[in-house]
C-alpha cells in the first residue's frame, strides 16, 4: 500500500468524550477508556482553580487474532484498523469489529486495494524478489476467489508475524458491500474518507445485524 494514513487523512469523527477506542495493528491490539473532557479553570481573583481531572487510565496492550478479539460485545466507540485487513480473514474480522462496537460506533479502516496490488506487480523487480512477488500474486488470486465465491484460501507460513497467511486486496466496491452486510452504514459523505491510501469511515448501525 503506498503512503501512510496520517492524522490528516482520517475523518473527523465528532464523537463526544469520554470514548473507548481500539487500535488494531499488525503487532499489537490496544485499547483505552480514554480522554476525560476538559474542565474549565476559573482565573478570577479570589477564586481557587479546581483541581485538574485525573489522568485517563493507560491503554491495555494485547496480542490477539483480529478475527477473534478478546473484548466483550459493544465495548468500544471507535475501532481504528490500519493495514491489517489485507492479511487476516476479512469477513470474520469485519464481524468482530461490528460485534465490539456500540450502536453508532465508528470504524476507521485503511486497507490496500486490488488496483494497488496490480500496480505493485507492474513496478516490482521480479529478479531476486520472487518470494514477495509470489505472495502478492497469491493475494490477488485469493481476492478474486473471496469476492466471487466467499471462500478465502489460507496457507501456513513460517514468518514472524503470521502463522497462517491469507492475503487479499479487496476492491473498494466489494468492501462497501461487505460493510453493509455486517451492519455498517456510511456517514453522510459516504464510506470514502481518503482515496489514496484508501481509508473508509463507517458507522455501526444499531438496527442492523450481521448476516
Can you lay out the helices and strands and say which pair or pack?
Blueprint lengths: L20 E4 L4 E4 L27 E3 L13 E7 L7 H11 E10 L3 H10 L6 H20 L5 E2 L7 E2 L6 H10 L2 E2 L6 E3 L4 E6 L7
Parallel strand pairs: 1-4, 4-5
Antiparallel strand pairs: 1-2, 2-3, 5-10, 6-7, 8-10, 9-10
Structure commentary:
- The protein is of the alpha+beta class.
- The protein folds into two domains: 1-112 and 170-211, Rossmann fold (3-Layer(aba) Sandwich); 114-169, no CATH class.
- Helices cover 24% and strands 20% of the residues.
- It has four helices and ten strands, in the order E-E-E-E-H-E-H-H-E-E-H-E-E-E.
- It has helices spanning 90-100, 114-123, 130-149, 172-181, and strands spanning 21-24, 29-32, 60-62, 76-82, 101-110, 155-156, 164-165, 184-185, 192-194, 199-204.
- The strands form two sheets. Strands 1, 2, 3, 4, 5, 8, 9 and 10 form an eight-stranded mixed beta sheet that branches.
- Strand 4 (76-82), helix 1 (90-100) and strand 5 (101-110) form a beta-alpha-beta unit.
- The two termini are 30 Å apart.
- Mean pLDDT is 81; it is low at 1-7 and 33-44.
